[in-house]
TrEMBL record, chains A, B:
Database matches in SUPFAM superfamilies: MCP/YpsA-like
Family label: Belongs to the DprA/Smf family.
Record-linked Pfam families: DNA_processg_A, WHD_DprA
Protein name in UniProt: DNA processing protein
Length: 399, 399
């Protein structure tokens, strides 16, 4: 990998040369993400026209503010060439491999007023796998840099088992939990995606240079920052929204009271994603963040990779729409019925006795509640027992 | 302590001799708890008349079934004498020290169809403190016998800190978590109550003979089983309903997948009590029960004694009524509002920024939700920030 900039290098012909790609490469360079005004502007008049107007400075004031400082920087072809020399490419919304569905959560968030959650104009991607394929289904595993042995072991096990079951493991390539999750996925010969807060050709953190190479060789290193961009504190927070969006759910393994992982978790919750937290000893400062997320109701407890899959299910059922639907459909349930609903799983049928034990609701009341849930379409009864339906969150059965 | 029965001993005069006390002592001896039919019968015609009719066998069939096997056993005076010789007494509902309020949860449960949750006809109490005084406010701390060092340390710390703050610590005097909780309370020179599944004069478990003596000297050993009654498996489960009822909330520190502590927790939930579970490593089999309770929505996470107090608040606010009120009052809140409500504390005011961080709800939306909660009486704003009101659970502010 190199951070050297070679202006003499001439970009190849082909996709790198297409005007839309060049326009988006230019726009990623001239505006520091997130740039909501620019994104909306591109949505109105298209990337090529938007780029032309940004160059000439004839744009609405909000767009001008986001682009005035750098609009004269013309490095699109150079960035595309540098990416290529690092085994990377620019994936744009016009490409088949654009992860439209996962990123839809960002557009929906913006429409709910979270302007900072704007979708990226394009993504620099290092590695050969198609981005959309890796992002569906995917699970984000995040956590503290200063992880304990317990946290690292859990992250590695979750990364391994989820990758082994066909889920791409999305994380941030940081030391600690992130690295352990990526390594676990690689050890299972599975897919893993590192979303970084710098250029995809920048070796950061330095100690993960080899890990990043292995991730790129077996999965993808992704960033909205142009090649050569150094990491910066605010970029990690901006980057976190992409990790939260690309994962159907986010699993927090360990987190201090104030931590980036916690920021990713609250972002995922704001995007309507499932947020899961791994509990730990209350005597461990590295579990405080997880327990806070649980106490605040932002995250639910998870103790095994199987439970992650049970909660998250297939990606499509976990988009903001599905979650929104759940929020509506489970409103106004009796306390007993909603406890029973919580005790039901999406994919593994359970008998009323098991549900009673899980929920602490008396069996007689469980039976009544199950009927109530069936009538409202939140549960269904099969030969092997009762299951939560997609309307109730967790998505339809995988078969 | 002695289990020897000395029929020659003549009971003292005074309260031990009063007919109602004698009647209830007789009834506790002739029916194995729980005896819902007998309890209802006593409610209808009074203890003295009920005892007379039970003796003669002229009672409704359900009552007969509960009493026929032992109705000829006349040991009331002997039991009262043996209790007295063990430093114990029989506390009856007619006494000022009867814990009417805590036990009300049992009557309410029965009226909801949980017949097994019937309130005791009377309670054998060893120790000098007034029972009602110790039961208000009280917190139940329960857990595994085969506790880990982590669990024992946490139980001891919780027992100590809660007792130090004036809460009586209720538990079952078993090895492991129970013992650690009692010892923690004693170390703080606080009150602690052991509810046992045998006679209050029976040294069980043998290894806790001294502990039981210390509990009786500084608090109370309580049982609905007559003096000399040996422990039995089913009696532990029957006993658990009393632990769950006497505590304004139940804290589960460690529990295996199938455990008595778990039974106490689900019973407490069925009684409308607050149930709190201490998380632990997902790699520890002794934390499985806690995590299951959390995942099933039966318990909420607790990581410190302060959080216990924050959730439980004063006893009166945590009766089933209050909890029922919460179940009603928070129904139909928007997802954001209910997240914000979860992130508010009863006693410690929080600023919107803190609530946003806790809840993962954007600040703008937090402000709107707080107003919504204020209008519905679920939150109130003071000089130091926002607090959850009693209507929203957790009870009114302690001042």
């Amino acid at each position: 990998m190199t951070t050297a900039h070679d202006p003499l290098r001439v970009p190849e012909a082909g996709p790198a040369g297409d005007p839309v790609r060049l326009a988006r490469a230019y726009l990623l360079r001239v505006a520091e993400p997130p740039a909501p005004a620019l994104a909306a502007f591109v949505g109105q008049c298209g990337a090529v026209e938007a780029a032309r107007l940004v160059r000439t400075g004839t744009v609405p004031e909000p767009v001008r503010e986001e682009t005035v400082a750098r609009h004269e920087i013309e490095m699109a072809e150079v960035d595309l060439a540098r990416a290529e020399s690092a085994g990377a490419r620019l994936v744009i919304p016009e490409d088949d491999e654009w992860p439209s569905w996962p990123l839809l959560a960002l557009d929906n968030a913006v429409s709910r007023g979270l302007r900072w959650a704007v979708a990226p104009l394009a993504l620099w991607v290092r590695g050969t796998a198609p981005l959309a394929k890796l992002a569906d289904p995917a699970v984000a595993i995040v956590g503290a840099r200063a992880a304990t042995v317990y946290g690292s072991d859990v992250a590695g096990e979750f990364g391994h088992d989820l990758a082994e079951r066909g889920y791409a493991v999305v994380s941030g390539a940081a030391y600690g939990i992130d690295g352990a999750a990526h390594r676990g996925a690689l050890a299972a010969y599975g897919s893993t995606v590192a979303v970084v807060a710098c250029g995809v050709n920048v070796a950061y953190p330095a100690g993960h240079t080899d890990l990043l190479d292995r991730i790129a060789a077996n999965g993808l290193v992704v960033s909205e920052y142009p090649p050569g961009t150094p990491p910066a504190r605010h970029r990690f927070l901006v980057r976190n929204r992409l990790i939260a969006a690309l994962g159907a759910g986010t699993v927090v393994v360990e987190a201090g009271r104030r931590s980036g992982a916690r920021n990713t978790a609250t972002t995922a919750a704001a995007l309507g994603r499932q947020v899961l937290a791994v509990p730990g000893p209350i005597t461990s400062s590295m579990s405080i963040g997880c327990h806070d997320l649980l106490r605040a109701g932002v995250a639910s407890v998870v103790t095994s990779p199987e439970e992650v899959i049970e909660v998250i299910g297939p990606l499509r059922a976990d988009g903001p729409a599905a979650v929104g639907a759940e929020a509506r459909s489970t409103d106004g349930l009796s306390e007993a019925a909603s406890r029973v609903h919580d005790a039901l799983a999406t994919r593994h049928p359970r008998h009323p006795e098991r549900v009673a034990a899980e929920s602490g609701v008396p069996l007689r009341k469980v039976r009544a509640s199950l009927v109530e849930l069936e009538l409202t379409g939140l549960a269904e009864c099969g030969d092997d027992g009762w299951r939560r339906t997609s309307a109730g969150g967790g998505g339809p059965m995988r078969t």
